[in-house]
Design brief:
The complex is a heterotrimer of chains A (about 350), B (about 220) and C (about 210). Chain A has about 350 residues and is mainly α. In chain A, about 55% of the residues lie in helices and about 0% in strands. Chain A has one domain: Ammonium transporter fold, CATH 1.10.3430. In chain A, helix 5 packs across helix 14 and helix 10 packs antiparallel against helix 12. With about 220 residues, chain B is an alpha+beta fold. Chain B has two domains: about 45 residues; about 170 residues, no CATH class. In chain B, a hairpin with a 4-residue loop joins strand 4 and strand 5. Chain C has nine helices and two strands. Chain C has a two-stranded antiparallel sheet with strand order 1-2. At the B-C interface, helix 1 of B face helix 5 of C.
């Protein structure tokens, strides 16, 4: 009898060397987000921590429930839903009422992800879907920002955090007046610029000692964590490069036209949610284009829209809508930038 | 075979359409005739109601428009569609105040408002949002918030030395930072909408107060 | 043409003509017609009621008139004739609303005039009134119109209760309630309609399974 032929495993291309599973990529994104989340807790205290825990908890529970309801077994294991929860909490004001955070988390996963068919099928970044819902549903609560480094931030909650479900959060003016230290105000740098024409020191912006959403404080820290992802090739470096680049160029042009009215490029880059959005949300693998040329277009589009909304629109911040619009445009971008397959068709 | 064989003659089609159109025309005219009077009454009532809320005790009003020469003239008929202000008189026939309408782009859409003006004290004495599509519960507070409306109880709208504009530009300032009589304390959280009202008032006051002051004698007498 | 209507032997009062529109063939939830006014003017119960009543009026009147003239109108000009008749009744309803209340008229805005292009009305004219006797066409219009009102109220109710905490203007929850402003805005209309369609389809599927 002939010896048994050695077993040869035949596989079609691509022949990848690294074994990268979805779960592994997601784990690295979570690692990269942890320092940002920790900074949020350090700047804003236990309110930010409660917000993070609530968002992640409700996101996981929602995905678990809905994937079982659809009879597919839980898909929580890949870890992507944890990222959605963390990102959502980071985009909300630190003292945002927890019941609203829970609503936003449910909407993120239910409407932003599971309704489309779960991970890999979502047209938009789920966390931003939830955030957009909250922005439209509770416009005053979502613009109620509190100052950083408040007194007793590790021993007491911001009063709005523990608002009972379905009730309005209390006004925060009194609490801010007694809790704030130094000259830290409750208004975000972007609001101060838009409504009072006051610029913020770029050093403070880079360090993160400014009011804002829980995760949009230290631009430098966010950029560092984001670069970790780029270096490990867990995210496409072209997206943040294109987005930040086009935002810088656009604000340079605006600033040159009217320096008193439009902020300079450095302020644009360091303020608001641009860093967090560019590194962690615009890079959502499912909702961004796949062709390299398309990725450049996608990134620059979002940077440009951000600056247009900030400078010309009624809202002080525009990153969220810019990324959602970019997500919406990415299928079109993909179809226009499809490379010519070798041997098929001619040059257009 | 003639493909048009089954088509009815055009003449018949046209006659039929004419008959149906005639019938529809009769229905429309009948509806128009019967509703004309109530519609006019409704519109007049709404305008009177707005004026009465701004200037209590109003009993008669005259619409003044501008002639190309910069003079004022009394507008008869429906003043809508022409730039105008309303001079409002009380029962005794003395001038109770002036009302004008203005519009400005807000956060969501055009905001239309009415302002009351006291020409003797040179103050704005009232504001009413006539059309408002701002964010419910936030921007639309500019029409209802008592604190915001209190801004317009006696807002300084003095003329400048030359008499061709305001002495101080009227503007909305951030909630809680109002220092001067010509500033408007914005609704907290609705800065964009509040500023729109400020711009609307500033622009319309610049437009009308010089005209009103120049012709105040004529307006007082109501001719 | 009046003679046709009265001696038509088929014109017996038919319950189905009326009941179909209410539920089984509900114009919004089942046929998904007329979504434009459904989304646009259901931000409060009173707007929904006014819009529904205006549409009901146009639907019944145009169904009756179209059924009356159905045997006179050749098929080449039928659409033009139907639109003419529908537009007439829309103009009438426009005047009537303006005479009744300017506030309601302003709240409904351009959507009164847009009843002309509400596909429920042309749809019923083409699918029902043009081939059924007057009595039944009137009933069909009534059923579809009331079905439309029911659908508008379902949306208007949810949107007003969540979005403002009120029903027909009466506060339901006391002063501390946090309104979900989103539901008064256009996206809220889409969310609410989507949720109702989801519920309707789930209910239909469950019924099919048990049947």
């Amino acid at each position: 009898m002939p010896a048994a032929a050695p077993e040869v495993e035949l596989r079609s291309s691509p022949h990848l060397h690294t074994r990268r599973s979805v779960a592994m990529i997601m784990r690295h994104v979570i690692y990269a987000l942890l320092p940002v989340a920790a900074a949020a807790v350090w700047f804003f205290g236990i309110s930010a921590l409660a917000s993070l825990v609530t968002a992640v908890g409700v996101c996981v529970a929602t995905e678990n429930f809905l994937s079982r309801l659809a009879g597919r077994g839980s898909t929580v294991g890949d870890g992507s839903v944890v990222i959605t929860g963390i990102l959502l909490a980071l985009t909300l004001p630190p003292g945002f009422p927890l019941w609203m955070t829970a609503v936003g988390a449910f909407v993120s996963v239910a409407l932003g992800k599971m309704l489309f068919g779960g991970l890999g099928a979502n047209a938009f970044n789920p966390a931003l879907v939830g955030r957009a819902f909250l922005q439209a549903a509770f416009p005053s609560a979502i613009t109620a920002y509190t100052p950083v480094l408040a007194r007793n931030r590790f021993s007491e909650f911001i009063p709005a955090t523990l608002t009972p479900p379905f009730l309005q959060p209390p006004p925060l003016d009194r609490w801010i007046a007694q809790a704030r230290v130094d000259a830290f105000s409750g208004a975000t740098p972007l609001m101060q610029w838009k409504f009072d024409g006051a610029a913020t020191d770029p050093f403070a912006l880079g360090l993160g000692a400014v009011a804002g959403s829980a995760g949009e404080t230290s631009a430098v820290l966010i950029a560092l964590c984001g670069c970790y992802l780029l270096v490990r090739k867990m995210a496409d470096w072209r997206i943040p490069a294109a987005m930040l680049g086009s935002a810088a160029l656009a604000s340079l042009a605006f600033h040159a036209m009217n320096p008193a009215r439009y902020p300079d490029a450095l302020f644009t880059l360091l303020s608001g949610g641009l860093m967090l959005g560019a590194f962690f949300m615009a890079t959502d693998m499912v909702a961004s284009p796949v062709t390299p040329r398309g990725v450049w277009i996608y990134g620059s589009l979002m940077g440009l829209i951000t600056v247009l909304i900030r400078n010309l629109g009624g809202l002080p911040e525009g990153v969220m809508y810019a990324i959602l619009l970019g997500n919406a445009a990415s299928p079109i971008i993909d179809s226009v930038t499809q490379p010519r397959v070798y041997g098929h068709g001619g040059r257009k | 075979m003639n493909p048009r064989a089954d088509l009815p003659p055009s003449g018949r089609l046209i006659r039929l359409m004419a008959v149906v159109s005639l019938l529809c025309g009769v229905i429309i005219v009948a509806a128009h005739k019967t509703t004309l009077e109530p519609i006019r009454r409704n519109q007049a009532a709404i305008s009177r109601e707005n004026v009465a809320l701004l200037l209590p005790g109003a009993s008669r009003q005259i619409a003044y428009g501008l002639t190309p020469a910069g003079e004022i003239e009394i507008l008869t008929g429906d003043p809508a569609g022409r730039e105008h202000f309303l001079a409002v008189y009380d029962q005794a026939g003395s001038l109770r105040g002036i009302v004008w309408e203005a519009a400005e782009r807000g956060y969501a859409d055009l905001i239309r408002g009415m302002f009351a003006y006291d020409p003797e004290g040179q103050k704005v004495t009232g504001f009413r949002a006539v059309e408002l599509k701002e964010t419910p519960g936030l921007g639309d507070k500019i029409g209802t918030d008592p604190g915001f409306l209190a801004n317009f109880r006696a807002l300084d709208a003095r003329l400048n030395q030359v008499g061709d504009g305001l002495a101080n530009a009227i503007r909305a300032v951030k909630h809680g930072t109002k220092k001067n009589e010509w500033e408007i304390d914005a609704v907290s959280g609705a800065t964009v909408s509040s500023r729109a009202v400020g711009r609307m008032l500033d622009r319309s006051a610049r437009r009308w107060t010089p005209v009103i002051q120049r012709h105040l004698d004529r307006v007082r007498k109501g001719h | 043409m009046h003679v046709h209507a009265t001696i038509d032997p088929q014109d017996t009062v038919n319950q189905d003509a009326f009941l179909d529109g209410l539920w089984k063939q509900n114009p919004v939830f089942v046929q998904v017609l007329g979504t434009c006014p459904t989304l646009a003017v259901t931000n409060s119960v009173s707007n929904a009621l006014a819009m529904g009543a205006a549409t009901l009026f146009v639907l019944v009147c145009s169904n009756v008139l179209i059924s009356l003239v159905r045997k006179l109108v050749p098929k080449q000009v039928r659409i033009a004739t139907y639109i003419l008749i529908i537009a007439t009744f829309v103009t009438v309803v426009d005047y009537v609303i303006k005479a009744a209340s300017i506030t309601v008229y302003k709240a409904l805005g351009p959507f009164i005039a847009l009843i002309v292009v509400n596909c429920i009305i042309l749809g019923r004219a083409e699918a029902y009134a043009s081939r059924n006797p007057v009595g039944r066409s009137a009933l069909d219009g009534l059923g579809m119109g009331i079905g439309f009102i029911i659908a508008l109220l379902c949306l208007g109710g949810v949107r007003e209760i969540l979005g403002a905490g009120t029903f027909l203007g009466y506060p339901l929850f006391g002063p501390g309630y946090q309104p979900w402003v989103l539901f008064l805005l256009p996206p809220g209309g889409f969310f609410t309609l989507g949720a109702w369609l989801l519920a309707f389809n789930a209910w239909k599927r469950r019924k099919e399974k048990t049947a």
